[in-house]
Amino acid sequence: MLLLVATAICKLCLAQEVSFVPPVFNYTTHNYRAGNQNWAVAQGRDRVIYVGNEHGLLSFDGVNWQLNPLPNHLSVKSLFIDHTSPEERIYVGSFEEFGYFQKNGKNELCYHSLKPLIREFTLYNDEVWTIHKLGSKLFFQTFSSYFVYDESDNTLKTEKPFPAPLYFFKAGEELYAQFIDDHFYRYDGKQFQLLLTRERLNNDHVVSVLLFNNILLLTTERSGIFSLDPATGELIRLATEVDRELQSETVNRVTRLSDSVMVIGTLKHGLYALRTDGTLLWQLNRNNGLYNNTILGLFTDDDSNLWAALDNGISHIRTHSPLSFFEPKNIHIGMVEDILIRQEELYLATNQGIYTYDNQRQGMSQLPDFNIQSWFIREFDNQIITGNNSGTAFVVNNRKKELPETGTGGTDIRAMRVHNREILLESTYTSLQVYLRNSSGQWSYSHKVEDFFDLINQVELDHAGNIWAGHMYKGVYRLRLDEALRKVVQQEFFTRLDSTAEATRPIRTMKLMGRMVFTDGAAFYTYDDIAQQIVPFGILNRELPQLTDTRSIVSINDTAFWFLRPEEYTLVKFSGGEYRIADRIPFAILNNPPNAGRGNIFVKEHRLSYFCLNGGIGRYDHSYRPRSNPPRLELYRIESYNRNSDTIRLLPVNGRNVIGFSENNLAFTFRYPDFSYKRFTVECFLESYDNRWRTTSTDLTITYPNLPANTYQLHARVLNDMGEVLSTLNVDFEIRNPWYKSTFALLVYFVMVGLLIAFLIREYIRMVIRRKNKLFAQQEKERLAQLDRQEKLIAEMKSEKLRNELIYKSKELASATLMVINHQELLNQLKKEILEHVRSGKFSRAGGISLIKMIDSNLPDEDEWAIFQENFDLIHESFFRKLTERYPELTPGDLRLCALLRLNYTSKEIAKMLNLTLRGVEAARYRLRKKLNLEEEENLVSFMINFT
């Protein structure tokens, strides 16, 4: 838990010496995730703080804690950082173990043990309690021996003196030692020589040796502080304001804070800060902010701030800071609403009454009769006046002087000059009240302003004589009083500052460099007395747009101002015609901040400002100047995630990294070792990737997943809360192309593409050739087919011609044959007729025989019908043979009819050729159909033509 309690090491300007203490940031195991006990603190060249913890070595950069364990996993009891070596070494001492940590190229702390260098000696229950360097030699001291390590030749020498050493001390260029229950010694380069006997130190042990202006201050466990002049050997006991406390406590650690300040750490009562003259600056313990009263280690860092290693936790005391705080422990004073510091008196107006600091009791006490909510306490011409819930009263000799005629609830009061008359104008819950000087020159209540009643909490007077009265919740009045200061002669009420603003927003009324300033939380406005209207305040809106929620402005001087905001005190300075934010005090960093919107400030002599807190007050020293060695932004760690192996690898932080594509998920962690209360942010911009600056996470880490292959430059910068760049850093790295995009792969791709193109060209040529061949073959095939068709057509035509010729010849043959047959039958018939006539005697026998011989000589020897059948079968593929085989009952007459039908003769032609009547032909056809078993619908001619 972060605890901020208070600051300032200079003496308070008040004579009563109100004890302001520096702010303390406490870190517990919840913060650093290690053991409770812490033994030593040191700081590296990079400003990182290292702490010896019971679990190992802690490192802290102001944001991140990291634990680096030892091989034995035990505590680090002593710590020394050697800044002189080229590679910084962090020497540590532990139980039966000592060595050093050193960073590698990845910023990892790697441990190197020196224990193996020990010869002829065995560590037994020994712990290394102090480490010091003298020249090139490191001294590691235990309670039984000490070891001298020479960096130049990496050798270790063991010494076992008697009595045994208790503590070693380094002061200037000298090494001193306190031996157990023995005297005080100085190292002469070879051995320890007696410097002071134990009796001269009140038989006590020296626990600290500090060098101030060539004088050694020796602090003992219980006998206080001694001053030793090394040149003369003169030893003087130094009287301090805390001698009684030092004698009753056990001093454990002491450190030098500045040229004239030392801090003493005890085992039971925390810290004491003393000047070298013995005066007490402050005391810190559990009552006023220290987390634990047992101090095991002290260290002053490069900023002159103090670190305390505690028995439970770690405390960072901001001794070099403009802030300081006071919180009384003897009484709870409540929420402080207003502060008044006059001469040697301190007054606080709180929600529980009026308190003042009691010099004798060294604490706050409540004024009698002032145990009520009080809103302000002011001084005018040595008169103190306070406003509270019941009204207004004067404080006279720390007693209450009632003003019964005043109204209830005094909220604000201002000194003004109206109509050339000096007045005090007070706002209350109900009215405005006027105070005037009486005959003795004292301020006294005069009257209420007539005919004006409202809830006013702020009043101001502008240069034109207008009184501005701000309503507690809404709007603002512009008022003008009459000459008698009793009546309002002009009144204008502004419910909003412009037409777009919400009428219910509170309007805050304040004054800046003589000009009226108004704000509604969205913008600043001022009053234009020429145009007699409220207009935007251009310069403030342009230069301080983030401060438009300001409630009030308190002037420090002509060029410095506090802007009181709901949750922050903001310091603004005016220079060169411009306003700029000089500092911020957020309520969040305060241990007991005021409630939101309840902050108030009192300025003393333009040098000190006092803040109202809850239960105390804070102080801001304007003479504070920050140290000139600000921290630098550093790259602390680069992590790459390999998605193939699911592992995280650390990369070197120095130089240019070339990273494989499989590890293109990167995380960059930065360090900016700033331990002050000021806020800062770290932003990054990755060239060729980002289009805007990106803010890191709270642990100052930024991640870039799945980066494309490219050469990159990461820009990083630190911004304070005013937007100013404090430090910058550039990181160069490269993401390699994946293997399939490498030069070799591209060459392979080129060759493969070339081969593929060649293959495709060859295949294309082959395809074109095949296509042309196929086309040629097709064309040849079509040509041949065409020829074949033509030949077939010719053949068919020839065949058809032959067929027609055959049919024609067949018809002629049939006709001729039939004619021959008919002629033969006619001759046979004629021969028969002649024979009949010869027998009947009609013809003579000789004449008949002569005719018969003539007829026989004209009859053929062969059967004409058989010849016809044979020839017809040859022409018509065995027509008669097949027909007789299939239909054996056919007669020669039927066959002749079939032949004539196949030759497609008509019935009329058949009748003529067969010497039959047409009716006889039809009868023959009918008989033939019956023998052929033809259906009625079947055509007889078609059957004969198609018969095969």
From TrEMBL:
Membrane-crossing ranges are: 744-765
Q: Which UniProt keywords apply?
A: Membrane, Transmembrane, Transmembrane helix
> Which residue range or ranges hold the HTH luxR-type domain?
887-944
Task: Tell me the protein's name.
Answer: HTH luxR-type domain-containing protein
Any GO molecular function: DNA binding
Q: Which GO terms describe its biological process?
A: regulation of DNA-templated transcription
Tell me which SUPFAM superfamilies the record gives.
Answer: C-terminal effector domain of the bipartite response regulators, Quinoprotein alcohol dehydrogenase-like
